[in-house]
Amino acid sequence: MRPALEVADIFRRHGDAFRNTQRGHLSQTQRRVMTAIEACRTARLGGHAERCEDCGEVRIAYNSCRNRHCPKCQGLARAQWLEKRRCDLLPVQYFHVVFTMPACLAAIALQNKVVVYDILFKAAADAVRIIGADPKYLGAETGMVSILHTWGQTLTHHPHLHCLVPGGGLGPNGRWVACRSNFFLPVHVLSRLYRRRFLEKMQLAFDAGKLGFFGDLVSLRDPTAFAGAIASVHRSDWVVYVKRPFAGAQQVLDYLARYTHRVAIANGRLLSCAHGSVRFRWKDYRTRRQNKVMSLDAGEFIRRFLLHVLPRGFRRIRHFGFLANIGRKAKLAQIRTALGAPAPPLPAAPVDYREHYAAVTGHRLDICPCCGGRMIDIGIWSPAPSTRGPAQRCDTS
User: Fold this and answer.
1) CA angle, 263 as apex, 262 and 265 as ends, to 5°?
2) What letters, b where the CB count within 10 A reaches 16 and e where it falls short, cover 164-203?
3) DSSP conformation class of 219
């Protein structure tokens, strides 16, 4: 059922005014995201006509934009991804590890998304890999799935990684080395190594001229100023925390379903868009009364939403260690042999897109809304002519 209010509705009502006021400041990718969300499941993208075999009801099913930032287009993509990952699950403990970064580095990341987000992934993976390989702690090759989130509950910029880590690793003798019960790796050691690796990579990126600084950060172009900023965050504690292990494979999948294909805000959190303001629910984890309501100017809401648009082609879900794409199948088979665990059944090949959607999401697309009969295709609905000109180029990347 369609929510009463969607991000697309806000974009359609206030998007043109926002584009006019932010002319020259929006990237081409951000403009494309706005256009895609506005057009999603409307006549602008076309679709197909369907008729019920029982009652004769006819409806138009419009196409989705399939943009990864669209709140309406993540259900099938998430379900398909989960179906593939189900084959990678092992009968071991799994831990949820979160890596964050200080606010001053988050500001640099906002102006250098590709470089700094990539450093975030690599520094976190290095920390888990190096400490896991140390015989003092585990002495094995670890594996990890990392998922980038860049937002907080109020849509502010808060880049961090959610990582799913099996509780153990592949030992040098080919055996599975399990970590201690309910304990993965020491958090304080993990945090310090992560901080060091992150700052080393930041300095290397600066020395190579890969970082740009604009606006309030322009002073960091000076090497002395940048070195001072790095030194200041090196003295602070970085937040890395490990949550309690999951109870089983299904809980792991439920976790992945919540985190993998999220966007900055779900349509279900929106309350109203009236008189130029947007109201939405958010959780304040610092207080007992967590559920609160925030009101933002529509332009500010759109600006915050677009903060979290990722550069084109950037991979926000990555695999490391024995879960990396190279050699994953062979290493997982080796681990299952060591554990005496059977290989998981392979997913059946999809025959029809409706059947595939129903199989991976649990929802059917071919049910008549009037009588519950079966809807069948009767023709293609061509896209409506576009009334918007080509996206304008801008100076920012």
Assistant:
1) 110
2) bbbbbbbbeeeebbbbeeeebbeeebbbbbbbebbbebbe
3) G
* Segment holding 155, helix H or strand E: none
Cα 286 to chain center, whole Å? 23
Model confidence over 322-381: pLDDT tens digits?
Answer: 999 989 999 999 999 999 988 877 665 554 556 655 555 556 777 887 888 888 888 786
Contact 95, 290 (CB under 8 A): no
Q: What are the b/e assignments for 338-352, b being 16+ CB within 10 Å?
A: eeeeeeeeeeeeeee
Report the length, in residues, of the chain. 397
Q: Which helix (H) or strand (E) holds 21?
A: helix 7-21
| Weakest-pLDDT range from 20-34, 76-90, 376-390 | 376-390
The residue to which tokens 């519950």 are assigned: 372
On whether the CB atoms of residues 351 and 31 are closer than 8 A, the answer is no
Task: Look up residue 68 and give its two tokens.
Answer: 């990864």
Rounded distance between C-alpha atoms, residue 243 and residue 255, angstroms: 12
Write down the H helix ranges in 280-351.
298-306, 328-339
Q: How far is it, in rounded angstroms, from Cα 283 to Cα 294?
A: 10
The answer to whether residues 53 and 374 touch, using CB atoms and an 8 Å cutoff, is: yes
- The SS3 assignment for 122 reads helix
Which of 313, 299, 308 minimizes the C-alpha distance to 266?
A: 308
